[in-house]
Amino acid sequence: MLAYTIRRLFMLIPVLLGMTLIVFSIVHLIPGNPAQVILGETATEQAIQDLEATMGINEPYLIQYGLYLADLLQGDLGTSLRTKGEISSEILPRVAATFELTIFAMIFAIIVGINAGIISAWKQNTWIDITAMVVALIGVSMPVFWLALMEQWIFAQELGWLPSSGRQSSTNPIEPITHFYVLDSLLHLDFDRALTVLSHLVLPAVALGTIPMAIIARMTRSSMLEVMKSDYIRTVRAKGSGQFLVIYKHALRNATIPVLTVIGLQTGVLLGGAILTETIFSWPGIGRYVYEGINYRDYPVIQSGILVIAFIFVMINLIVDLLYAYIDPRIKY
Amino acid sequence: MKLKYSFLLAMLIAFVMLLAACGDDGDDASEPDTGSDDETSEEDEQDEDDGAEVETDGDDILVYARGGDSESLDFASTTDGESSRVTKQIYESLLDFEEDSFEIKPGLAHDWDVSDDGLTYTFYLEEGVTFHDGTDFNAEAVKVNYERWSGADDTYSFEDDGYAYSMYGTMFGGFHGDDGHVISEVNVNGDYEVEFVLNEPLGFFLQNMAMSYFAITSPAALEEHGPEINENPVGTGPFKFVSWSRDDQIVLEAFEDYRVDGLPKLDGVIFEVIPDNSSRLIALNSGEIHIMDGLNPDDAAGVDSDEETTLYTRAANNFGYLGFQTEKEPIDDPLVRQAINHAIDREQIAEALYAGYAIPAVNPVPPGYLGFNDDLDVYEFDLDRSAELLEEAGYADGFEIDLWTMPVARPYMPAPETVSEIVQADLAQIGITANIVIEEWAPYLERTQQGDHELFMLGWSGTNGDPDYFLSSLLHGDNAGASNRSFYQNDEVDELLDAAKMAVDQDERAELYKEAQAIIYEDSPMIPLVHSEPVLASLSNVQNYVPHPSTSESLAEVELD
């Protein structure tokens, strides 16, 4: 196990290097002079030259890449062109915001998805199964932005139950400690605020969690059906266990392995792919950070944002691989 | 495992493609404010800490939502409209604009004199004004700020930290030591009198003095915060800065010692970012925000008919145009250009793109500007006349031409490809085959300066409310191959524009600009399409809100019922 973990960690090196190369090349993939693009149609010649010098895009390609790597190794992600701030310090609250949203979206997706899958498998081919799977199919196919706007329209504008956007009440901002606002509210022992923050989480978390929820439900159902046909389940049944115990105690654990893979992948996708949700719900997360970077052609920010997202994605995959062994002790590395 | 990495790779490639494909630039032209390495991270945290102390319950706090965050709260080192929208509340300039036009009114200077030769401007400053940090506003503060931008004294220029003052360079002809730089000296004549000595007359000097890009920062704050002044603004305006959480919100509170009694009427303002236009409207309809900028023109009717909300239009301050590379055949012939002018249906463009919130354009200057020529009428949409002109020019059978289409949306051109298709269809009716050419944004801008294009589309947005910024930039022969992408050269027009730029008497300037527009109208080096009138919305309990054409309006008078 330990040897496997170490081997996996070593394998990360080429992956991470490859990532830096791709991310770094982005600037050079876009046709034309980046300084001209940033400055737009009213730019003067002088302003373009100044910006080129500040961006360092006059150096040869390989030298630029070398300098970039050297800075990265020191934890220096560069400076944002837009804000003039250090990216490494700007990016942390964004990552926290996205993590918070993703965690709640996945909690929603896992609880609803797994249970829907189990019930579907349990009541296979009944109207419950069919309804659940049709809903799951719609969930997978629905564009996130549409679902998000519908949620906002129904629950914020028409019913007025939940706030439509943002992470918290705008007139009464929190004093951040960890930048996980739910946690921060609790650390401040401010339970009213925790409720406000949670109410802001509901709509975006549901919007973001719907697709993974549907995928998890379908995966759980098929995996469950397969396990339910196996010999050991028949043995358990023969011993006289009730259906509930059979499913939740004996079948679920073995059915979880493929579901876990999906959960891991989906978590990674959500962390990087929350751009739409974060934009519509005005959620200041990493996706928004990259989006704003793209709008301004803030290349250091785009590079760093993608790098961080890709890094998180790789890490989550590593964790999932290691979790297999925990859940199913028969797996040996 | 193999599968997963290929998925990761696919994600990255998707991202890269997203980037390459992403043409939308969102904001207006931005500025070379580039970064430094020695920015401290503590500063951000500090700001956010302050935020928690805002006690707002029961107070009149106005929440203003917009699509993007400010780049910097140091107004002079950016050209970003979202920045000056906020700094307008915190800072004041020597002069100010009227609430709904570019007419000049007093600001930090209550009076001013101009010498007869137009070379000396003396401003008499308000006395007893304090900055938010408690220090006094005086003539010395004005000098410090102007010399900071011009580089005459670069103690606070912060060039090494990526600060550049391009708006100053544009408006005053360069920087200290440059040939065209207009301001030769800034003299302090006593505590409350400051004198600007110019190298040559500048017709729009007073206009510049009212711009929010040339407001006065507390010298003590420049000393204290250094290059972090962009996150710690200290001015004399009606609201003072409290906190800023990037891409989220900027919190301001009323400045009790504001120089005008009874103002501001609000206790505070929060500028919030909600990127999506539809989400922003939902937030308004649910009462979470008070004012929203960037309403989709298609939603305007709904806002207008709802009793809970109020619709506003901002006066036009830009125009989109279809330009000609006037050195290329056959569009080097004014008759051909006029023919095309008669063939473009501007009304259709205004309806298709702006739901009617746009004015068909006659001149390359927004209406309401000094010297706007009212005597001219929009080239009538008249295909017969157009065909006649083509025949007269010897192109009765039409011809083929490239139509360069912008790859990005701009406020003056929200859907370039739609415009392009309308133009293509219009031209087809008079036998001209337009081939749509799409270039990436950077090559588009570069190659149109090199003159590789034929027909092209672009636009221009105003800043100081003066016609010179439109006419000289776009059509003066000296700017051919730079901002004059039509390569239009007409000595008579150049002379008129030069004379108008140097004249001090505004009536005289107006006449000169009118004359220039009449010639331009006949020569038709570009087809002004429309001036867009952006729409915005508020809750109906918001009182006294007046949108300014520059997009930066003071909220000092605004009240909540």
TrEMBL record, chain A:
InterPro entries linked to this entry: BPD_transp_1_N (IPR045621), MetI-like (IPR000515), MetI-like_sf (IPR035906)
Bilayer-crossing regions: 9-30, 101-122, 134-155, 197-219, 257-281, 301-327
CDD domains xref list: TM_PBP2 (cd06261)
UniProt xrefs under PROSITE patterns: ABC_TM1 (PS50928)
Pfam families assigned: BPD_transp_1, BPD_transp_1_N
GO cellular component, as recorded: plasma membrane
Origin: domain of life: Bacteria
UniProt keyword DNA repair, yes or no: no
Location(s) in or outside the cell: Cell membrane
A biological process from GO: transmembrane transport
Record membrane topology: Multi-pass membrane protein
Domain ABC transmembrane type-1: 95-324
Keywords carried by this UniProt record: Cell membrane, Membrane, Transmembrane, Transmembrane helix, Transport
Family: Belongs to the binding-protein-dependent transport system permease family.
Name of this chain's protein: Peptide ABC transporter permease
TrEMBL record, chain B:
Leader sequence residues: 1-20
GO cellular-component term (any): ATP-binding cassette (ABC) transporter complex
Biological process, per Gene Ontology: peptide transport
One Pfam family this sequence matches: SBP_bac_5
Single GO MF annotation: peptide transmembrane transporter activity
Name listed for the protein in its UniProt record: ABC transporter substrate-binding protein
Family: Belongs to the bacterial solute-binding protein 5 family.
Record keywords, A-Z: Signal, Transport
Chain ranges of the Solute-binding protein family domain: 103-481
Presence of keyword Transport: yes
Keyword Transmembrane: no
Species assigned in the record: Alkalibacillus haloalkaliphilus
PROSITE patterns registered for this protein in UniProt: PROKAR_LIPOPROTEIN
Region (Disordered): 26-59
